[in-house]
Amino acid sequence: MRDVAKIAGVSVATVSHVVNDKAGARIGDDARRRVQEAVAELGYRPNALAKTLSQGTSRFIGLVADAIATTPFAGQIIHGAQDEAWKHGYVLLVANTDGNAAAENEAIAMMLEHQVHGILYSTWYHREIQVPEALHQTDTVLVDCFAAGNVLPAVVPDEEQGGRTATEELLAASHRRIAFINTTTPSPAQTGRLAGYRAALAAAGIEFDESLVFPAAPEQEGGYAATSAILDSKATAVFCHNDRVAMGLYDGLREHGLRIPEDIAVMGFDNQDVIAAHLRPTLSTVALPHYELGAAGVRLLLGLEPAPESGPKLIACPPVLRHSI
Amino acid sequence: MRDVAKIAGVSVATVSHVVNDKAGARIGDDARRRVQEAVAELGYRPNALAKTLSQGTSRFIGLVADAIATTPFAGQIIHGAQDEAWKHGYVLLVANTDGNAAAENEAIAMMLEHQVHGILYSTWYHREIQVPEALHQTDTVLVDCFAAGNVLPAVVPDEEQGGRTATEELLAASHRRIAFINTTTPSPAQTGRLAGYRAALAAAGIEFDESLVFPAAPEQEGGYAATSAILDSKATAVFCHNDRVAMGLYDGLREHGLRIPEDIAVMGFDNQDVIAAHLRPTLSTVALPHYELGAAGVRLLLGLEPAPESGPKLIACPPVLRHSI
DNA sequence: TTGAAAGCGCTAACAC
DNA sequence: GTGTTAGCGCTTTCAA
C-alpha cells in the first residue's frame, strides 16, 4: 500500500480511500486515476487481515460440523452457508469434529482466535444437542439441530410439514389406505413425520390406523424387511421414512412381482439424489432442505433475518414429484 | 494481551513468550506462573490475525471447489483436507465456484487477500483442467484434477490401478470371461479403468476381447440398459464403471431372474456408500480415495511430501469386498 | 531474565 | 481534497 502511495504520489490514506471506494471521501479525479494505475501496475492486493485488525471486525464466519463427509447432506449445508456468506462479503472457515468433544472445543477456540463474526454449529441429521460451553463466547446459530430451552437460535427442517406434504401427495393420488414405514430411531424426524402423516390423514377425514405404521431401521434393509408386513396391510400406498427405506422396499415389492406405482405407490423422504432420481421408477419424495438450512443459518447469524421468538426457525421440505406415485 | 501483562506485572513481550512457549526465551518460573494465571483469569485468547500480520505468514489454506454439494465426494475431499490441515495447525478457508470462472477468480482473489499459505484447487470428478490465471500468484496444488504439461503439482486417483484391482478380484474368484461396462464419457476414468482391466487380463493370460466391453451412460440407467448385451455376451462376471451403473445392472439382472453372485458376479467402482453398502447383495467395489486426495493435497502444499517429478501424484484405489462376487 | 520499541498493513480522526 | 498520525494485537530484535 505504501508502494502504491509512493508511485501514485499520494498518501496511504488516499490509497485506502480510493481502494475502498469510501463514501464520504472527496478524492480528485486525477489522484484517483493515479492510484488506480499504481494499483494495477503493482498488482496490489489489500491485506484483508490487516484490515480486520484495524477495523476490529472480521468477515469470517465459522462453520463447525460434526461430520462433513459421512453424508452427502453435510456438503449441502456447507454449500448453502458458503454461498450466502459470500453474498454478504463473508468467508467460511470450516472445521470438522467427527462429533468428538475435544476436537469441537479446539475448533471453536481456533475460530474465536481468528475473530470470527460468529459460528454456525451444524449436525448432519436433525437432532437435539448439548451446546458446547465454548459456543457461548460468540454469536452462534445452530443448523439442523437445536438446544433444549431454545437457548440459541436454530434452524431446522420442518419435519411435520414434510410428513404432511408427503402424505398429501399420496392422498391427492386418491389413496386412502396409506401405510407409513417409520424409523425406529427416536428423533425429531420420527415424531415430526408421524405427526405430519396423522395431520394429513385427519385433514382428509381418514381415521388414523395404528396398524398401518411400521417401524423399521432407516436404511434399505429396513424397507426390504418391511415388505411383507406392508403387503399384509393391504395398503395401496406407502410413505417411507426416507429414500433408503424406499429403495429397500422397491426391492421387496419387486420380488413379489408388484409394480410401482400401478400396484402400490411409494413416497420417500430426503431426496437423496443418487437414489431417488435413479430408481426405477424414479422416486417421488420430499426434499430435506440442507442448502437452505445453511443459507438461513448465515442469515440469522448476520441478523439479516429475525429468529422466531420461540423455537427454531423451520425450513419447509418441498415435495419432489417423480414417478413412484 | 496488554491486560494480561498488566495483571501479571510483566511486559507484553513476556506474555508473548510464555503464551507461545518460545524456545529460546528465559522466563522465570514465577513470572511464567503469574502470566498463566492472568491468562486464565481474563480468559485471554490470542488474536490469530494479529499474529499473522506481525509474522507475515498465515495459517490459512484455501480450498476452492467447483462443486461442494453436487456429490457426496466433494465433501470427502474437504474432510480429508481439513483433517490434515488441522493436524499441522492450519485452517481451511472454503469457497464454492459452481465451475463458474468469475466466481473462481473472485474466490481466488479473496483467498489471496486473506494471505493464504496456498490454495487447493479441486474438482469433484477426475479430469484435466485449464488452470485459472490467478492461481499462479500463490502456491497451488490441484486435487482430483490436473493441468496439461504438469505445470502444477496435482494429486489424483490411480484409475488404472483401480481398474486392475477390480478385475483382479473377479479373476481371483475364477472368472475368465469378464465383461466391462465402461462410461461413454471421455475422461481419465474411462481410459484408466479400461487400461487397468486390460492389464489385469493380460497378466492372467487372458486375451482382451473388444466385444466384452460395453459403453454405457455412467448412471443407473446405463447399467440397466446394458443388461441384455451383458447376458448375450455370456460373461460370468461384470466390472462396472461405477456403483451407479452396477445398481442399474442389478435391476436388469434381477428382472431376468439372475442371482448375484451365483449366476453372475458384479464389481463396482467408487464405493459410493449409500449405494454399495446397501444393495442386495452388498456390492463389492473399488474405493475412490477422496479423503486421501484432500489430505495428500495438503501435504504436498505444505511441502511435507515431495511431488513426483513428472505427472500427478497417484493415490491408490483400494478394493472394498462385499457380497457381489 | 525481562522490557522497550519498532513494525506488520491498514483504517479513521483530524488537521491542513 | 489530501496528508499525518495514532492505533489494531502481536512478534521480535536489542538493550538492560
Automatic annotation (TrEMBL), chains A, B:
The alphabetized UniProt keywords are: DNA-binding, Repressor, Transcription, Transcription regulation
Keyword Lipid biosynthesis found? no
Family matches, as InterPro entries: HTH_LacI, Lambda_DNA-bd_dom_sf, Peripla_BP/Lac1_sug-bd_dom, Peripla_BP_I
Residues of the HTH lacI-type domain: 1-55
Q: SMART domains in the record, alphabetically?
A: HTH_LACI
GO-annotated molecular function: DNA binding
Q: Which domain of life is it from?
A: Bacteria
Q: Which Pfam families match?
A: LacI, Peripla_BP_1
SUPFAM superfamilies associated with the record: lambda repressor-like DNA-binding domains, Periplasmic binding protein-like I
What name does the UniProt record give this protein? LacI family DNA-binding transcriptional regulator
Q: What is the lineage of its organism?
A: Bacteria, Bacillati, Actinomycetota, Actinomycetes, Micrococcales
